[in-house]
Specification:
Blueprint lengths: L1 E5 L3 H17 L4 E6 L1 H6 L2 E5 L8 H6 L1 H18 L3 E5 L2 H14 L3 E5 L12 H7 L2 E4 L3 H7 L6 E2 L3 H13 L9 E5 L4 H15 L6 E6 L5 H5 L9 E4 L2 H6 L3 E4 L3 H8 L4 E5 L4 H11 L7 H6 L6 E3 L5 H11 L6 H15 L4 H14 L1
Parallel strand pairs: 1-2, 1-4, 2-3, 4-5, 5-6, 6-7, 8-9, 8-11, 9-10, 11-12, 12-13
Helix pairs in contact: 1-17, 4-5, 5-6, 9-15
């Protein structure tokens, strides 16, 4: 069968590549064509466009690059129509992918599957109407989504979380590391330039207050080192390592993490963390968040267990004083460290074991053959 996949960022490239590998095991005649990244290309198939050409986030970047975004959309639709796949598999990235879903559905080209649901439970809940209309099957990786969608009359498949697969695979290759044997704090400042600009300098300044710890930045794959250097305080010794996020975390005794998939990966690796997400005009953003967001938390860790097990310092809560206090609490001998590690075990039990990619591929192939 022919599979057309679309992802819009690095994490999507990782999870889609694992899904593709499993689809090949389930369907020996599988053909792939995709908007994706290097990891997907390594599995095989035709890379039509790299996600780096798609990843525009925020109002101003989207506005500036609107002609390019619209051109990418037109090219993608035309390519799908010409290639005539058996299924289009969309991976997160809702702004682009939901428009593609509508096009494919209206044209009647093929089935539309969504792997890694858009986070419409957090905001833009109205998008569920589009999903019900245009998406044939949705494969969820977060357990609480099943009930959320069910209450709104839409059945989804929970297949487990692919981050568990990715971490377990890495552990099998590299082995366990004793966090406490290392005097290192990991800094994960986000995967987008605006996040790094807003967060990195304060994260480093606060972490440097704890003497005796090396500071290591886990660099995002699509950001050059020179960009990070702009926000490292002058004279501060900081190492930047690219393509080694799990290794950096596994060698660290604690981490400061900008919200996103990284908070979940950090918890799966059992590294105590503080979530840091600064924004311009913090008080205004906090007010807007309280009015717009439909969830109590922004980190996946807290959403999964439905309570705050990691501190979220967001908008006006992200101050130097708060970061230093919260980081100190999770370092060795800190008063909150052991409880966080115990809460991580609860979160991992809720997520379930490895095998998400395999379960998703099996169900997709079964449904397509049926």
């Amino acid at each position: 069968m022919r599979y057309y996949l679309i992802v819009g960022e690095a994490s999507g490239d990782l999870h889609a590549s694992n899904l593709m590998a499993e689809l090949k095991r389930q369907d020996v005649e599988a053909e792939f064509r995709f908007y994706g990244g290097d990891k997907m290309a390594a599995v095989g198939g035709t890379l039509v466009k790299h996600y780096k050409e798609l990843a525009y986030m925020g109002f101003i970047p989207v506005l500036v690059h609107l002609p390019q975004i619209l051109q990418n959309m037109r090219q993608c639709k035309s390519d799908i129509e010409q290639w005539k796949p058996d299924v289009v598999i969309l991976v997160d990235y809702p702004g682009f992918n939901l428009d593609i879903a509508k096009f494919v559905h209206e044209k009647g080209i093929c089935k539309v599957y969504y792997y890694i649901s858009p986070k419409i439970w957090a905001w833009k809940e109205y998008r569920i109407k589009n999903i019900k209309r245009d998406v044939d099957e949705l494969f969820s990786i977060l357990p609480f989504e099943v009930q959320w969608f069910d209450e709104r009359g839409y059945k989804v498949h929970y297949v487990g979380n692919p981050c568990v697969d990715a971490v377990e695979h890495w552990k099998e290759e590299r082995g366990e590391v004793d966090h406490l044997a290392k005097k290192q704090i990991a800094i994960l400042a986000g995967s987008r330039r605006q996040e790094i600009k807003d967060n990195l300098r304060m994260m480093l300044t606060c972490a440097s207050k704890f003497e005796g710890y090396r500071l290591v930045i886990a660099g995002a794959p699509n950001i050059e080192e020179a960009y990070y250097q702009k926000y490292i305080p002058k004279g501060m010794e900081v190492e930047i390592r690219f393509g080694q996020t799990y290794q950096v975390l596994s060698e660290s005794v604690a981490a400061l993490v900008t919200s996103g998939t990284a908070t979940l990966e950090t918890a799966i690796l059992r590294v105590p963390q503080v979530v840091c997400y600064a924004t311009p005009v913090g008080k205004l953003i906090s007010w807007v968040r309280s009015k717009v967001l439909k969830v109590k938390y922004i980190s996946l860790v807290n959403l999964i267990v439905d309570r705050e097990i990691v501190q979220e310092l967001v908008a006006d809560r992200m101050t130097k004083e708060n970061i230093i206090q919260c980081l100190g609490d999770i370092l060795p001998e800190g008063k909150a460290r052991q409880q966080m590690l115990e809460d991580y075990e609860e979160m991992n039990r809720i997520l379930g074991g490895a095998g998400a990619s395999k379960r998703a591929a099996e169900e997709m192939v079964r449904l397509l053959k049926a």
